[in-house]
Every structure is written in structure tokens, then in C-alpha cells.
Amino acid sequence: MTTVQVDTPGGSYPIHIGPGRLDHLAHSIPQDATAIAVVTNSTVAAHYAQRVQAALEQTGKRLMRIELPDGEAYKDWQTLNLIYDALLRNRLDRRAVLVALGGGVVGDICGFAAATYMRGIRFLQVPTTLLAQVDSSVGGKTAVNHPLGKNMIGAFYQPIGVEVDIDVLATLPQREVSAGLAEVIKYGLIIDADFFAWCEQNVAALRRLEPAALAHAIRRSCELKAQVVSQDERESGLRAILNFGHTFGHAIESGLGYGEWLHGEAVGCGMVQAAELSQACLGLDGASVERVRALVQAIGCPVQAPDLGTSRWIDLMQVDKKTEGGTLRFVLLPEIGRAVFQPAPEAALRAVLERAATHPA
Ligand SMILES: NC(=O)c1ccc[n+]([C@@H]2O[C@H](COP(=O)([O-])OP(=O)(O)OC[C@H]3O[C@@H](n4cnc5c(N)ncnc54)[C@H](O)[C@@H]3O)[C@@H](O)[C@H]2O)c1
Ligand SMILES: O=C(O)C(=O)C[C@@H](O)[C@H](O)[C@H](O)COP(=O)(O)O
Ligand SMILES: [Zn+2]
To answer: What class of enzyme is it (predicted)?
Structure first.
């Protein structure tokens, strides 16, 4: 087992990474907890809920399960209410602990429920997708979607710990593995050129979930994310680089309807678009743009953006938390391994968006 530490003003906690972590969850529950509610979805529950509940029974605490419907389309206010309803009906108090067992959808929604129930109760992240293990379980962004924009209703709220069990990825569909790898290569692009090159060399092993490659990718991703959020928990500056590819990606997700493209697929494609915009705005060299495109394709994510129509693209992108005073701002790459955050000239942006129309998916 390896441990990566996250230290923010909102909370300090360990990320434990290793095989078999599901069986050791009892150690992560505080002694003074009055009850534990495992928040999960129907798919993950079928695989892992019994095992997790057996592990948590070792605490001797009152235990309940809240099972949500599965899918990005359910990351909304109605589903959030199912959690509040269950917590209130069962009279869980302020010393109850929520356990988010699932991918990023369960983690984000459970985290927001924890942030808001009785003005805040503790929660533990137990991520079960690659994407959640390398990204969403770390750093305390919690949210639900709004029909008009992705993650628009949420809070910064840190978990008390993250338990990453690498073994659970064995049941993950291949398409979800590809989506998770998009966020892995993101770290290389924004902050660690050597890690990007390592991903290029190990892409086949990663897609096959070879344990050594997988363990390295998860640990390095968590280290890099922990470094960034420990310096800027609330995205007042530096943290925005973690949003590389997301201005385009979130527009794809909300424009096509949540769940049509997976988050990681939309981010993968969005990173190719952001690399093209970096070429136009900052002179990122053509060979680097092609490296981005080639690796996104090699992990199994789409590289051709959908044709949403240029003005609709721009409308959708306006609903972005990085927009200020109506001005869109982008995370761009002067070179692989380094990111900056700035507005982009409209002509350059339109040229990138028009490629979605000229090369239909
Ligand atoms: N908070 C953050 O910092 C952050 C970062 C990245 C993404 N996100 C959010 O995370 C969400 C995407 O998360 P995701 O990619 O994990 O999707 P997801 O949560 O929808 O999970 C993907 C699918 O895999 C299933 N699944 C989960 N674990 C499984 C397992 N071990 N075996 C078999 N099936 C399993 C799920 O039931 C689901 O059908 C998006 O809503 C995105 O906005 C948040
Ligand atoms: O942790 C962050 O900061 C990120 O931006 C990570 C992203 O991968 C993630 O998708 C996040 O939820 C996007 O945040 P948002 O503020 O654009 O909703
Ligand atoms: Zn993301």
C-alpha cells in the first residue's frame, strides 16, 4: 500500500492506494461516528456493496445503504434529494459518516450531500472507477449538474480520506478505462512532461490494466493532483490548470445531453481542441499537438469533436465557472508539461470550433 497526503485549509487526509483496500475500510471510520451510510449506485452495489458492508460491520456502528440510479443523467437535484430523504428518514445525526462507493458521479453527489446535510457531516471517498481513483475522489470538488451547465451547483468540501482499491478496476468496462486514462494523461500535459512521455510508452499496458503500470499511473496522478489542490484548494488561480480540456469537454457533455459521451471521453476530445487552440494562441508546436491527438486516440477516446454549430458551442462554453464578466478563459499549453490560464482571441477559437463542422464525427 502507498499513501499520498492531501493538505488543504479545508482538511488534511490520506489517499491509501493498493489492492484489497475494500476489506480495510473500518480503519477509516472515526471512533466517534454514530452511524455509517454507504452511498452507491445499483451497478456498483451488485459488485461490491456486500463486501464493503461486511468490512464496515467490524466498526460495530449502525450501517445503512443508499442506492442511487446509475448514470451521469442522474447527477442532479432529484437524486441528491433521495440521499437527504434517506438520511432524515433514518434520523442520522451530525456525527454520521457517509461513504461514497462508486465512480465520480456517486463521489460528487455524495460529497455535496455531506457538505450540506445539517450544514456538513464527514464523508469517505471509496472510488471504484479509474477516473474517480485518479481525479474526482481527490481535492474536494463536489457538485450536481444543472440542465444549463455541468457541476453548476456544488461546494468545495474535503473528504476525511480516500481509499483506492486497485482490484475493483477488474470489473470496469473498457470504455470506462479509456475515459479514466484521459484524466491521467491530463496531468502529464499540464504539469509533468516526463509522465506524459511515460504514458505514451505504457499506453498498451495501461489499457490492459497491468498492475505495475496501473499502480504507477494512479499514484503519480494522485501526487500531482494533491500538489495542485494543496496550493490552491478553491481554484483562485493555479487549480484552474486541472480544468485543461474541460471548457470544450463540458460543452460536449451538456450539449449532447449528459451521459451521451462519458466525461473522460469529452475531456479527451476537449484536450485535443485545447491543444489546437494553444497552437493558434501560444505557438505550441505542431508535433506536440499531434502527440496529444495520438495519445488521446491511443487510449481509446474520440479525437473528433461533435458538430454542435459554432454559435451553440460558444453559448455552451460561456456557462463555465472560469468565465468572468462574460469573457471565456482557457487553460492552454505553451509546451507539453506546462499550462497557463488566459482568454483566447475569438477568431482563433472559432477556427478550432469550425473544425468540428468541417470534419463531421
Ligand atoms: N470532483 C472532481 O474533481 C471530478 C473530477 C473528474 C470528474 N468528475 C465527475 O466525475 C463523473 C465521472 O465519473 P466516472 O467516470 O467515474 O463515471 P461514473 O461515476 O458514471 O462511473 C462510470 C460507470 O462505471 C460503473 N462502475 C463504477 N465502478 C465500477 C466497477 N468497479 N466495476 C464496474 N462498473 C463500475 C458506474 O456504475 C457507471 O456506470 C462526472 O460527473 C465528472 O463531472 C469530478
Ligand atoms: O479538481 C479540479 O479542479 C478539476 O477541475 C478536475 C476536473 O477533472 C473535474 O472534471 C472537475 O469536476 C471539473 O470542475 P469544474 O469546476 O469545471 O466543474
Ligand atoms: Zn474532469
So the answer is: lyase
Q: What is the pTM of this model?
A: 0.98
Strands 96-102 and 35-41, sheet pairing: parallel
Catalytic, 235? Answer yes
| Interface ipTM | 0.99
Angle at 115 between CA 113 and CA 118, to 5 degrees: 85
Residue 358 pLDDT:
67
pLDDT at 361 over 50: no
Architecture of the domain defined by 2-171: 3-Layer(aba) Sandwich (3.40)
Does residue 321 line the site of ligand 2, with CB under 6 A? Answer: yes
Of the options 1.10.530.10, 3.40.50.2000, 3.20.20.190, 1.20.1090.10, the CATH number for the domain spanning 174-358? 1.20.1090.10
Is pLDDT at 133 greater than 80 in this prediction? yes
pLDDT at 356: 86
- Determine the 3-state secondary structure of 58 from DSSP: coil
Please state the domain extents for the chain.
2-171, 174-358
Evaluate if residue 78 carries a pLDDT over 80. yes
**Cβ of 183 below 6 Å from ligand 2:** yes
> Rounded to whole angstroms, how far apart are CA atoms 330 and 243?
9
Amino acid at 148: L
CA-CA distances (angstroms) from residue 294 to 269, 288, 297, 304, 310? 11, 10, 5, 12, 25
Quick check: is 239 catalytic? yes
76 CA → ligand 1 middle, Å: 14
